[in-house]
Amino acid sequence: MSNPTVPYRIPFNKPGLTGDELRYVADAITLGHCAxxxxxxxxxxxxxxxxxxxxxxxxTTSCTHALEMxxxxxxxxxxxxxxxxxxxxxxxxxxxxxxxxxxxxxxxRPDTLxxxxxxxxxxxxxxxxxxxxxxxxxxxxxxxxxxEIARRYGIAVVxxxxxxxxxxxxxxxxxxFGCMASQSFHETKNxxxxxxxxxxxxxxxxxxxxxxxxEKGTNRSRFFRGQVDxxxxxxxxxxxxxxxxxxxxxxxxxxKYEQIAATRKRIWTYYYTHLHEWACVNGVQLPxxxxxxxxxxxxxxxIMPSLEARQAxxxxxxxxxxxxxxxxxxxxxxxxxxxxxxRQGQCPVTERVSDCLLRLPFYxxxxxxxxxxxxxxxxxxxxxxx
Length: 386
Fold this sequence. Notes:
It contains 13 helices and 12 strands. It is α/β, with parallel strands linked by helices. The strands form 3 sheets. A 7-stranded mixed beta sheet has the order 1-9-8-5-4-2-3, sandwiched between helices. It has a 3-stranded antiparallel beta sheet with strand order 7-6-10, with no helix packed on it.
């Protein structure tokens, strides 16, 4: 039997509406085509392509499926290696492991919690086929050195940009650096449709095959454009297109992105301003955003001095009806990670951060009064008393 749900007064996440979602969903149904690649899907594609300057953007049923498509497009084979941070969601590597690749785990930087680019070159072997930078909390990895190393060795770069839609690295959008990138519209993200994602294609040589793979391995997209008089099975693939009902919901959110971004900036800034002094006194690390990065205000986290301090603060907030959560467990120490050669001490920063990181409630409808309550409960907490 599952445990009963704890009724939190202030949840960690709450999906929100911007105004037109339900009207657009009804419209998608009324138009008579609510399966994949309807009018709202096309609108989302066009909006994202124009905004990002990508060769092609294709909505998918999840960020996971976008990554799976990337692995198929790179023709990943058994014995290939992919380099990815251990501090990430399992989909980053699972999409490539499904094709037979071996994950090679890299540690993270202690400041941005992104892939440590200074360790990257030492992990490259003749079998390395892809580097998978994950832009944690939407703050950019150091893409210049990553791309330079990848170029020198002829290795593809696929960005996992689940957290970072419309964020920047040196005035260029995240998700537009690698040959491909994945986006997420999961209910915990800034822009949502419940479950959903997108594959951003920056190298046009992948576009035609991506359309085929996404349409169950058929050339159906070419048929609908009138380029062939019938469509048939031409490649491997799967059904990666979301319903146009989800695309309609997403389009309403994308239209209001600036409003969402402003709201989230206010929430993030309130936490940072009101917890900065407390954090300095108690040896707590707050999020770090380098000057050359523009973040999307995806999350706010604390890195506590110890696992014990992290767990104690989670419990104090819980007693007040506030849900705070930790984040990724190190993939190199997971059951699958150990089978791939992972071992204790391999990624020491990842191991420490995983034990100590705590994420605070963060969602578009979070009120300032609720935030003030969260802050007022945290500030009396003193690590020295532990």
